[in-house]
Amino acid sequence: MEKIDYTSRHHQIALYAKALAHPARVAILEFLAARECCFFGNLHDVLPIAKATVSQHLSVLKESGLIQGEIKPPQVRYCINKENWDIARDLFGLFFNDLKKIECS
Amino acid sequence: MEKIDYTSRHHQIALYAKALAHPARVAILEFLAARECCFFGNLHDVLPIAKATVSQHLSVLKESGLIQGEIKPPQVRYCINKENWDIARDLFGLFFNDLKKIECS
DNA sequence: TTACTTGTTCGCAAATATACGAACTGTTCG
DNA sequence: CGAACAGTTCGTATATTTGCGAACAAGTAA
pTM for the full model? Predict the structure, then answer.
């Protein structure tokens, strides 16, 4: 039997999933999306974690491509990266919806 | 400013995301869904990892609720858990689609 | 019974993730 | 200039994840 390699799709889904794999990051994305954009301080104010930790989670989200940050001295404004957000949405959408015949006999 | 607690939705999305956060598990789910169900051996045959590791990933997926295993001596048959799969699909669907007004000014 | 087949569990090592305070950078304000 | 403000980065501690071989458990076949 032939071993398979993980496809780039597998990797991409896994990477976006990893970005969503912590409640703080889910909350950040939700908060960001609801208000379009917001500053680091707004996020730190509502999240139950230290600012260093908030910064770290934002860093993970930035690396995943789901958000972007813009320096507006003396603050930093974060917002959803719409392009990658759409890519992630489509990846998950296809992944969850295009699997037919799911019935265990 | 009021701190928020992570909601159970945040936690649930994070948990499902964590289940998808490894290429092997994405591949397993895809493989499972394409063939409805299959045995441990089929998965081990196609995945580039040791059987102990396959078992571990299956365990993670089982705990997430996305799949279920049934012992059919001497084999174990795994398949998608449709109920939870639908829940996850809806969670991600709402999460990615119900965020309007995503534009960074 | 013994041997084999199928898959899980154990024990360990290495890598990654999470969290925080303290120190730091860069900007603004007095 | 020095103080205050907004965030990031550093260093560290702890927990979780990933991966594997070896040992194990359960069922089947001889």
Answer: 0.92
